[in-house]
Amino acid sequence: NHLEGHIYAGWLIDRSIDFPLVCLIVSGGHSDLALMRGHGDYVVLGRTRDDASGEAFDKAARILGLGYPGGPAIEQAARNGIASIQLPRAWLKGTNDFSFSGVKTALLRLVEGGKVTNRADAAASFQEAVIDVLVTKAVAVAKECQVKQILLVGGVASNELLRNWLAKSSPIPVLVPEPVLCTDNAAMIAACGYYRFQDGKIDGLDLDVIPSLKLA
Questions:
Q1: Which of 37, 77, 81, 193 is packed most tightly, with the most Cβ within 10 A?
Q2: What's the number of domains the chain is made of?
């Protein structure tokens, strides 16, 4: 399971992780909040309803003409900008779900209306809007579930602002793999396979690919 592989990137840097913990999985295709009660034991608490965070960064970068992949392009541009543009946040009160299509559309309308004069400021503002929601919801869920740790994983977890913002905002310890282990890699899948093997979960050579496989 690709999402489970991202989670097990955490065990590549710390094998003494305590359960229960909340996993914030952020990538090009996913923005999920999951409660992990033990190895292989997950409860998905929130998912994206439209664009995932990484997908939103890709689309925002295209809108601003910053290139691909969008996450690193937005982050690089944002370093030279100020988050001075007010962009909406979709809090979806009463749920732990995410939605990033609205902030992307708001950015597009500003650009089309000629109201963006500094791409770096626009990148910084968009990055802040997305990360604000990710961090706020992750910390709230972790407090509510009374977990021992928050695990931040997935390609978007390599974003420096996200890593620092979550660590500073959370009263609960935050564990984040080094950036090279946040993007897709074989080591995280091997780590996941190791713990599945330890739990007696073994598949035969007839195992097929399931592209839509869910975490839980």
A1: 77
A2: 2
What is the per-residue pLDDT for 47?
95
Examine the pLDDT at 212 and tell me if it is beyond 80: no
CATH number at residue 98: 3.30.420.40
Handedness of CA 133, 53, 149, 176 (dihedral sign): negative
Residue 4 and residue 30 in contact, taking contact as beta carbons nearer than 8 Å = no
Per the structure, the complete domain to which residue 30 belongs is given by: 2-48+148-198
The tens digit of pLDDT for each residue in 7-34 reads: 999 999 998 899 999 999 999 888 999 9
Coil, helix or strand at residue 33: strand
- List the one residue out of 164, 157, 162, 150 whose CA is nearest residue 179: 157
Q: Which residues contact 149 (CB under 8 A, 6 or more apart)?
A: 17, 18, 21, 22, 172, 173, 174, 175
What was the pLDDT predicted at 16? 87
Report the alpha-carbon distance of residue 172 to residue 153 in Å, rounded.
16
38: Cβ contacts below 8 Å, ≥ 6 apart: 19, 20
